[in-house]
Amino acid sequence: MKFVIFILVALFFVIIPVSGQPLSDATGIIDRLDIQTSGYSFEIKLTSNFDLTDYAFDKDQKQITLYFDSELEDNLAEIIIPKDLLSGNFMFYLNDQEFLPRVESNQNISFITLSFTGSGSNVVKIIGSEYLAGLDPIIPNAALPVNSESIFDDYFIWIVLGSALIVIVPCIVIIVRKMKN
Prior knowledge:
By secondary structure, the protein is α+β, with helices and mostly antiparallel strands. It has 3 helices and 12 strands; from the N terminus they run H-H-E-E-E-E-E-E-E-E-E-E-E-E-H.
């Protein structure tokens, strides 16, 4: 029986890596771009075979700009953009030339596959037609009234109850043990 389990575990480690390599395994470069805009925080994931040197987001232009250096002639990248950040009809530019990558979408993300040739420094611009689609505007904290007395009262009640339990439970345990003896 132990031999069968050993074989199954060994096959798991042998068969899984051979079954297929996603782009992230083939390239090894994964960048997570944090975009802070209009009170929201978004993460764009970029998996590529080139080095991302910088990025920028312009909410007025509804545009993400990626700056990168590549030492390879054939470049490949996968980009995941949350639809809450940018969505709609996308336009793409590679070094100021219109570019048509493969785009797939579901209700949450847009999945973009870039494939192009050319080593050296490059710039990719991704322009969406919709920005923060479906999200409610965020009200700044200064505009929200905060009743600090209510917050303090709630915490105070929990602290008192917690402290009482810490004292009462051991006392009950001690009394029960004494009654058994």
